[in-house]
Amino acid sequence: MSENMLFEMKETCNFLDVFKHCSEAPDSLSSGKYPNAQIGHIRAEWDGYVWRGSYFPCRKELWTETFYRELRNIYCCLVTQFYNLEHLREVCKDHPSARVSESEYDFFMNGHIADYWIRFITRENDYNLYLKGFAKKRTDA
Q1: How many CB atoms lie within 10 A of CB 71?
Q2: Residue 33's CB: how many other CB atoms inside 10 A?
Q3: CA 113 to CA 133: how far, in whole Å?
């Protein structure tokens, strides 16, 4: 499913290796273990009129300006394409294999700078979009 997006959203993750190694993330605003490759994420909610999103760091040593620019570009494409919560629900229903619970759907995207896990939550009065960025596996090391 690519409908005018910079990158194609996929229903299958092709970067599962990033979830194998987790540890406390020193720059995260919440405690717990996160994948060592997780750079940060945007969390957004539909307030009935507009999408409201905020960036949350995870590992600042992985953060770059080019990552943040790509993350923001993908986020802008998502909230433009899914212009309200009802439309987001319709698109999710068209992709039953992305469903992980009654009201949650997972998609994945390979960016140029990072790989992304996108979770859509179709419940009202909840955070409805998570866009998590992961450092790509380096092949030059």
Answers
A1: 23
A2: 11
A3: 9
Place of tokens 């040593």: 61
Six token digits for residue 93: 């229903």
* Residue 81: half-sphere exposure toward Cβ, Cα within 13 Å: 19
pLDDT tens, position by position, 25-80: 988 888 889 999 999 999 999 999 999 999 999 999 999 999 999 999 999 999 99
Contact (Cβ atoms closer than 8 angstroms) between residue 119 and residue 105: yes
Question: Where are any strands of DSSP class E within the chain?
Answer: 22-24, 33-35, 38-46, 51-57, 99-101, 104-110, 114-121, 129-135
